[in-house]
Amino acid sequence: MAVFTNVSEAELSAWLGDYSLGQLQQLQGIASGIENTNYFVTTGNGRFVLTLFEKLTASELPFYLNLMAHLARHGIPCPAPVANRHNQFLGELKGKPACIVSRLSGASTATPSDAQCAAMGAMLGQMHLAGLSFAHNMPNPRGAAWRAASAPQVRPFLDAEQAALLDSEIELQARQNFAALPQGVIHADLFRDNVLLENERVGGLIDFYFACTDALLLDVAITVDDWCMNHDGTLDTARARIFLRAYHAVRPLQSNEQAAWPQMLRLAALRFWLSRLFDKYLPRDGELVHAHDPRHFERILRHHLATPHRMEL
Questions:
Q1: pTM for the full model?
Q2: pLDDT at 292
């Protein structure tokens, strides 16, 4: 179980005394988290999710919590942080920064249907539009500087062919300039397990703790690289077209975005290949969770190189 910090019912009940959420009824650890400790919490006032932040600091967290509150106010189904009696979203529990947010309905799927891909494309467009009025900025912590710093650390674990691929892709992406593309707040991690579905409706977008300010198209590419992939790492072009058309109907994609699409798909694959290599070979002290297989995104990247995909709308 990915519960790094154990919280007892007595400890949580005392902490909840600073909130107007009613009496604690149930506390249940969530096994799926990889960055933070998460619990399902049921009180007399409803169902919530408690998060204790294991790596992010109290000074870093206001961006994420204020973003979720902003999006929730604009009708995006994301966790809404609950303020305590001091009107603060962020508290401290067991010596860790902590917050409690609304619990959303639905469940993730490993095999999204065409209709679910369309719903996700439309929701991503709605989220991007809602985020345009968010006043705060957070440079992408997984951007060019991070790629340049991380690659030399994982290169010793690669064979010659893999190292050549990594070096050439980082060099190519360093020459790209996506600053002219529409910018805004992106989720940056909208994999299928971070989306809750109710049949063909998106019931919730969760885990905003990689959110940042970057090209909106990068968010589209990250999501397509997960939602519209075949098991062998090739792009399901039919599903990708469905996704993109649904997104485009909400936030029309500009001509420069359409031209940048093949490179952005590669950048999204490179970002997660590199982070998974890092998590596998250089895990943080005390990390308890199983690292994802980096070869998955290596295959996706190789397929994007072999078959560049034009954006079809």
A1: 0.95
A2: 87
How many domains is the chain partitioned into structurally?
A: 2
Q: What are the residue ranges in the chain where pLDDT is below 70? A: 1-2, 33, 285-290
The SS3 of residue 254 is coil
d(CA 251, CA 216): 10
CATH number at residue 278: 3.90.1200.10
Q: Are residues 75 and 199 in the same domain?
A: no
The 3-class secondary structure across 124-165, one letter per residue, is: HHHHHHHHCCCCCCCECCCCHHHHHHHHHHHHHHCCHHHHHH
Q: HSE (CB half, 13 Å, CA atoms) of 304?
A: 24
Amino acid 288: pLDDT: 46
47 Cβ contact list (under 8 Å, min separation 6): 40, 41, 102, 103
Domain holding 192, by residue range, is 114-306
- Distance in angstroms (rounded) separating the CA atoms of residues 293 and 268: 16
Q: Which of 160, 197, 176 is nearest to 271 (CA)?
A: 176
Q: What is the pLDDT of residue 1?
A: 43
Is residue 313 in a domain? no
For residue 41, the domain's CATH number is 3.30.200.20
